[in-house]
Amino acid sequence: MKMKQALIASLLAGAIAIPGIAPALAEQQAAAAKQSQAEDGAELSMESEVALEDLFRPPTYTNIRISPDGRHFAAGMRREDGLTDGVIIDRRTMKVKSVLAIDGNIGVTGFRWANNERVLFHFTFKSATSEGDGVAAIAGMNVDGSRKDILWRGSDDYGGGEGAMLQGKIDKNHFRVAVYPSGTGLKFPYLYIYKLNIYTGKSLRIARSPIRSATPIFNKDKEITHWVGYQPSSYKNRVVATRNASGGWDENVYDESKGLYLPEGWVRGSDEEMWYTDTIEAPTKGLYRVNVETGERTLVYRHPKVDYDAIARDDDGNPWGAVVNYDYPTVVYIDEKNHYAQTHKKLQGTFPSQYVSIVNRTADNNEWVVSVRGDRDPGKYYLYNQFDGSLKFIADPFEWIDPANIPATHPVRFNARDGMEINGFLTLPVGKDPKKLPLIILPHGGPHGPRDYWRFDRESILFANAGYAVMHVNYRGSGGYGRDFEYDWYGHWGLEMQDDLTDATYWAIQSGIADRDRICIYGASYGGYASLMGVAKEPDLYQCSIGYVGVYDLNIFMHSGDVQMRKGGREYLLEAAGATEEKRAAQSPLTHVDRIEAPVFLVQGKRDVRVHWDHYVAMRDALAEKNHALETLVAPRAAHGARETDSQLEIYCRMIDFMDRHIGDRKPTDPPRQDCVPEGAIGLEYKYYEGVKRG
Amino acid sequence: MVKSLIAAASLVAASQPFSLDWQRPDCSAYDSHSECENALNNAYRRGMQQEFKDKGLSFWYYERPDYSEDEQAEQAFEDKIEGALYFSFTVEKDGSVSDVAVKAKSSDEVMAYAGPIMASINNWQFVPSDQSWPDLEWRYAFYFEPEECEEGAEEDTEEGSCEADSGSDR
Hints:
The complex is a heterodimer.
Chain A: H1 2-12, H2 22-39, H3 52-56, E1 61-66, E2 72-78, E3 84-90, E4 96-100, E5 106-113, E6 118-126, E7 134-142, E8 149-152, E9 165-171, E10 174-179, E11 190-197, E12 203-218, E13 224-230, E14 237-243, E15 249-255, E16 261-266, E17 273-278, E18 286-291, E19 297-302, E20 308-313, E21 319-325, E22 329-333, H4 339-350, E23 355-361, E24 367-373, E25 380-385, E26 390-395, E27 408-415, E28 421-428, E29 437-441, H5 458-465, E30 469-474, H6 483-487, H7 496-510, E31 514-524, H8 526-537, E32 544-548, H9 554-559, H10 567-576, H11 581-586, E33 600-605, H12 613-625, E34 630-635, H13 645-662, E35 685-688
Parallel strand pairs in A: 29-30, 29-31, 31-32, 32-33, 33-34
Antiparallel strand pairs in A: 1-2, 2-3, 3-4, 5-6, 6-7, 7-8, 9-10, 10-11, 11-12, 12-13, 13-14, 14-15, 16-17, 17-18, 18-19, 20-21, 21-22, 23-24, 24-25, 25-26, 27-28, 28-30, 34-35
Chain B: H1 33-55, E1 59-61, H2 71-78, E2 83-91, E3 97-105, H3 114-123, E4 125-126, E5 133-142, H4 162-165
Antiparallel strand pairs in B: 1-4, 2-3, 2-5
């Protein structure tokens, strides 16, 4: 099925996938998926089109990249034990030529071609004690499988164990490596840059940022001319350090809530012109070309409603497109005549309902690896050849996912009660008439900075697969819609920010999509706050609520968790959560627990340092004290959200079970499912509070 | 980084005028040699796409010449030998390539590049079709920029770099 779709897509682009060559890789994938499925044990019996396990199964291949000379692909390939090896694939035969598999609890997380013969891999050493934690290391391998070496296990210069990230190429034998010392997180670390020999692993420290949490900008002579970083004393201040004539650094501080003016890099080959991002002239991000000698600046692109997320550049560094996410992800063509813009437009036309991005290119730019993904497809890889203008299918890393069975997501837009335009995304179950559906309102975390996008969203899909409409809402205060949309609403948690979710719910009811008697609100982190605040503020609107690692008491937030440990974090809390104890109490779900009528399910990671355990305990005890219809689930090793697949499977199984009993086809008085612990797993700490009124 | 040699192996579709008195491209209208080279290559690629579309030809595997193991070619790069080579070849029904030959050359000196190019063309693989295509033409041209490479940000190798533009990578 997937091959057929890929073939059709290729044909539409004027290309043909070769039977017998492209399928060689696909066959390997299918075999791996089949084997993996067998090893994963019996599937949980969910009433969904796509098994929950399939949504959580890691991709067979990751990060496919073509070599500079086009003779090989490098990729991450999932191992039988679930970890990921680095592999080199011969382009001509599409067979795996060499494998980098290192013993131990390690997985490939990324890589880059150093040259035609050598690939550098990022590995992560997984933590044995905490879900999701790890240390990044760097390894290298030649395409023929020789010279396999771990090049960087971490520096001991700062207390030991510092991971590293590859940056730019220095010469054929050396790369730059960026190291952020651990143990300095509370003040934000300085960035150290090392020169790493990619064959011997020998390293030499060559630079340290003059400001904290900074990234360097290099000129055409490969000298650092600017650093762009953060100011530890303020959560919203950005710092630009510019090298002066005497070799020192001049610093400019920008308050993000008032606007930024940050250098992005030099115009290719120029020592006079730079690219800058600006949010001073207008609330949304603008790209400017600036002559740093004369100060003359030219606006290249700015979207009136949303920040651009990326700028696409051609071989000479000229911007030809801006990626914006107003509703669907879209490439706005800045320069319609640019060869890349014209080519991308053609490719995009081949996949009209998906998003096409250029992943990497050969050194001569004749061939591109292209990724195509969408709301129903987590992504496939194609190879585009500029000589024939055709796409060839390379691989489907999620071969077991059939987009036809995946619920579609639709951008929606409505006006809040005060007239402000609010954007969101509605995911609808497959094969159901979108009328009077049970609805889950799913606010994102953050709240300030993050936002939701039109994409393959696993959480939305798993709930929609269970029969629910799912609505994400980019409520005011979210990121991505300009500085005013984000910063004007600090301190408005539970107020207008919450009203946007309420208005979204009414929009779904009034549009006929949602059944007003079957609506649940669920979210994680700030989403957990909004979920509990939702049922406290609008007790008649929601029939159930799930809080996952949620903030429930803004005064607890002031003295527990890691946010308050930083000076900038304390400033953030005062502005975001409220300057006075009274205000914070008034805007806390815990204060209004007596107003909560809907059944509540609390899910918490015991090692959460972002939203401390105390929030969960306070809300749990308050609800238990009033004999509320309550269920709890604790993941002992999880921090701010579970990362291990077994934990995630149990959490979502129990969430769906909870939804089913309160807004689904089952009854609130039905007992919870007994089959949510994956086979072979120890299971999390689930508690169903007995003796309380349900239904 | 000083870019000692920049060669543009610009390729001209068979449908384009065939000329032995090859002239190096006039890049004076461009801000940089790189922009000139890329513009010419892009124009060529667009032309090739039409050629391939008309014939129903599609690459499965396109191989670049590897000049690094060829002493003659390496020396020619060092000596900045400029000119053009025209090759002919046949695409068989099964997509393989045969009958690779030098059809014309702008000078005897430029033949120094021919070995690696012919080896690479022999390895090309096209999508199989219901007919073979004899006497297809392909051109490699070599011209050099004597100036220093004006390379900007090189963090992202996808953006191309001096090294990526060099003739030895073609």
